[in-house]
Amino acid sequence: MRFIVLGAGSIGRRHLKNLLGMGHEVVAVFDPDPQKLGTVRRLASCGVVTDDEAQAFGCEADAAIVCSPNSFHIPQAREALRRGLHVFIEKPLSHSLEGTDALAADAAKVKRIVLIGCNLRFCPSLLLVKRLLDEGRIGKPLAARAHCGYYLPYWRPDIDYRNGYGARQAAGGGILLDSIHEFDYLRWLLGEVVEVFCYAGKASTLEIDTEDNADVLLRLASGVGVNLHLDYLQRTYRRSCEFIGEEGLIAWDYIAEKVTLYEKEDRLCKVFQRNINSELNAMYVEEMNHFVRCIEGAEKPILDAVEARAVLKIVIAAKASASEGRAVKIKI
Q1: Signed CA dihedral, 213, 178, 94, 222: sign only
Q2: Could you give the CA distance from residue 213 to residue 226 in angstroms, rounded to a whole number?
Q3: What distance separates the 2 farthest-apart alpha carbons in the chain?
Q4: β-strand partners of 238
Q5: Which of 148, 207, 223, 264 shows a CA-CA span of 20 to 30 A to 282?
């Protein structure tokens, strides 16, 4: 298939390399930053490499990969649909709900695939957690506690963090949107969220105008309560979750690719472990293979525009809660 890639940052370059490695053609790469375009030219042989978005869209293609800052996702995706392209949008769907309903309507009207890229949906260790939950290995889920933190200046070492989208509200940055993976997998594994309470703000001296930490309480339709901590502050990368059930506990550690299952008797446990070094890019490749299979009609999008909007609503509710100092209910 033929693709255009919009956004040549780290994730755009990853998808570019993976598409080429899978045997597809990248006919155009767009980014307004000449330094990023220079990196693309050194990285791989592809078609047009340009700072002119219209030129990129003018290339004959089957699909667009949207990897630009969050605030550009909706206009670029809608333009791609207008041109008859299928669309892959790197998470999150957008930085606000504005235009998200219209995007879903556009996709339905022109009968094109829209897939939002949440690579943790393809993470082997998290898929194992889903299987264990679905098998009822810990009984009825009662509560969960999730954590994701990393130091923003270390996250993308090839750029000054102050210039990255994560540092700027106008670009759709902030730890809540950056860590939308957590909101997505918790909803995917445990069900709909009906109420959110959030404390969020800037505690550090980082030169950003976004929140650098957040503590979120989620109430699910099932009655499950979830405690979620997110931050840009810690000098190492940690991502984990514990799922507490009536008959046991599942502990998931993304970095160690480790899943620990404690069943009915608390002295007995089973540990499953994989090596993240061999799995990290594999989930991105599988994510793109899924997109291709959706275009071919063999599969349905695991996270389409409608479902991604439902996840985004939770984050927007968390932002409103932090701003207004109250719990925010979510209609489902």
Answers
A1: negative
A2: 17
A3: 63
A4: 149
A5: 148
